[in-house]
Description:
The complex is a heterodimer of chains A (432) and B (170). With 432 residues, chain A is an all-alpha fold. Helices cover 62% and strands 2% of the residues of chain A. Chain A is built from 18 helices and four strands. In chain A, a hairpin with a 2-residue loop joins strand 3 (346-348) and strand 4. The model of chain A has no long low-confidence stretch (mean pLDDT 84). Chain B starts with a helix and ends with a strand. By secondary structure, chain B is mainly α. Chain B folds into two domains: 1-84, Four Helix Bundle (Hemerythrin (Met), subunit A) (Up-down Bundle); 124-164.
Amino acid sequence: MSVIAPNFKLSEFIKSILDVGFWTLLIFVLIGLPLVFIVLFVIEMPVINGEILTPFLALTWLADPSRILPIVKAFMTTDLFRIAAFPGFGFAALIAASTIFVERKMMAKLQLRVGPFYCGKLEGILQLMGDGLKLISKEIIIPAKADKPIFWAAPVLFVGTAAAFVALIPVAPGWVVADVDVGLLAVFAVIGFFPIITILSAWAANSKFPFIGGIRALFQMVSFEIPLILSFLGVVIVTGTLNLSEIAASQSSFPWIVFFPIGAIIFFITMLAELERIPFDLPEAESEIVAGWLTELSGMLYGLVQFGTYLKLYAFAGLFVVIFLGGWNGPMIVPPFPAEIITEGIQMGPVTAQFPGLPVFTQEMLNGTIWFVIKTVGVIFFIILPRGVFPRIRVDMLLDLGWTKLIGLAFVNIFIALGLLYAGILGPGGLF
Amino acid sequence: MADAAFLALSVITIGSAIAALEMRSLIYGSIALMGSLGGIAGFFLLLDSPFVAMFQLAVYVGSIAVLILFTVMLVKRELIFKKVEDKRRKFVGIALMLIMMVSLGAVILDSGIRQITTDEPAVDFREIGEDFLTYYWPALILMGLILSGAVTGALVLARRVDEENGKHIN
């Protein structure tokens, strides 16, 4: 009979536990506590219940749990929270990660396959985590004659640029990382960085397949940027603003897709091309050039590029929602927060629990976020769908589509906008 | 605070401009050029004109730099460049640059730039559009005509008709 640990001794086991406890305590006292106090003293603390939050008060939530909510709420107003968690990186990363899994499973169902099945008990739900662990633990192999600095920097820059794009998307009223006046131009400027990073990464790999893929990616992205910009000019003409929050707020009665269906279609097609999705996935055409510009990337470098691609997908879907589908606007479906919990607290038998600081989120913010997520998920579904249905198109067809048909249609869209404006239907004095 | 940002931007812009000129690798040179152009976009942001800054990023970094990269990658540089190292030329060039900079700086400092109040709010881009459509309309129409002429010419030049026995293919 085999034993898991043949040399097991209870006394040594207890000793090892005590050792770990001792060293943890020592390290916490010597390094952790001074660090906590330095951080708490250096960072400017918010005012809660009329008094400035000192480190001592901040640590009192250990004894008084009712202080947690005000502290959390004060943290949520900081820029750090916006950038790292809610409308920014964390939220987008969550949607991006779920998109990867849903895409694989949905493709499988469309093509009558099973898809991820074994990892995790329920329909392969842990597959993504397994893939991530695999990518992290894999060795990163750099080609011998590659240009190392650029090769290392390109995936990181790719994710960084995608995160900058995400930062411009407003999720709910007032909930946006960077609320810039020239939001759409900022989007234009940020998208312009993707082809540079792609071609640099492709060149740095010093290999045939990545280079061909990189050049394809370059001309595809650069030539489809022009119809992309032209397609939302109609909305800009009618609303008279470039700020994405104002554009979203202007659609409280109807989304702009009602008046600009042509613009929305152009935007959607150019979005597919910018994202290198099928039927425009020439830069990554796996049957011709292995994996295109991603061929030489391995391990977490590949993982970073994939992650950046899906962040970009979320950002484009969010942009479509904000410009054409009404952003966060929608009927109020979130019930108002019960007022008696705020005033009286929750009664549990003889005990009454007071929760100062409720409600954490306002009703508008929750409702806006729910509508935004529903619409964005819908758009992502339609971005994924062609992958299971269409074949890849030829290079010359792609360029012909971009340079002649889409740009021409975009001008038709702009003239529709001008017509609506001068006829007095939209704009000052009109419906809106 | 603006001073620290100004200094950092100056260092980035001038440093990468020098690097763009001096680097032996053309790819790194064009990356440095991108840094220089991006630094100029930062200056526009400091000068409260985000509109121009975004166009600087989109057009110069996003398109012109890509064009340069593309050209550099597709040609073999041994075929077009021959390295000529000449110390005297270099120093004459630096001296010329200094003379240019000093005289330009004198002209600019003399032009009343010191009397500008600096706490004005940022110029709204709608005002730029209004100015274009009212006072500067001839210039706008001229620019529009030139640009559309250039685009039409480019389309005509790039057009390729595939014909086989008098029949269109594709």
